[in-house]
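[agent] plan:
  1. take the single chain provided in the ticket
  2. run structure prediction with default settings
  3. attach C-alpha cells to the ticket
  4. add a short note for the reviewer (M.T.)
[agent] executing step 1
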Amino acid sequence: MTDTSPRDLADRFQQRWLEHNPFAATMYGIPGYDHLLPDESEAGEQAWRAEVGQFLEEADAITAATPAEAVTLGCVRGAAAHEQDGIDMAAAEHTVTAMQFAGPATFLAVAARTVLVDPEAAEAYLTRLRGSGTWFGQLGERLRTGSGKGRLPVAPLAERAIAWAQDVLPGLGPVFAPQPPAGWARAAAWESERWAGADGRVRPGTG
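[agent] step 2 finished; step 3 output follows
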C-alpha cells in the first residue's frame, strides 16, 4: 500500500514522458519542453526503461478506491508497458526513413511546425538547435550498433532518406521556418545564432 494517489502517479509519469519525448510536447503545444532533445543513446533509453519499471511497480502497489482511479491506474500501466515495448524494439538501431516519425526528419518536422510566441520560446528554440549535434550523433551511433548486430535498414526507405537529405540539406528550410517575435530587439542577433546553429550542428548531423 502506498500514499501516492493514482492521479499523482499519472501526473508524474506524464511529466517524465514529456521530458523524455520533448518533440511530442512541442507538437502538442505543451510549453516548457521546447529547449530539450530526446536522449537516443542506448544508456539513456535503458535508464528510462528502468524508470518506467519503477512507475509500473508504484502502480501495482496502489489500490484503486473508485472506478475512476482504476481507469487512471490502467492508463498508467498501459502507457508504461507501451514505452518498455518500444524500447525493447530498438527502432533507433535499424530505422532509416524520410518519414517524419524517426531520425533527422523528425527534428526538421518539429522545427517547421514550431511557433515562437515570445522571446522565451525563441531562446528555447536556439537551445534545442545548439544541442541537436549531440542528438544526431546518438542516432548515428545507434545505427552503427544495430549494424554490428546485423540489424540493417530497409533499402528502399534508406534510399528515400538519402534523396530527402539531398533535397533538404542545401537550404535547411524547416530550420528557418519559425520566425522570431515581431519587434523583438534581439531578433537580428538571434537570427545570426540560428544560422550558426544550422551550419554547425544541423547540417553536419543530418548529412
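[agent] step 4 note for reviewer: Residues 45 and 87 are 7 Å apart (CA to CA).
[agent] ticket updated
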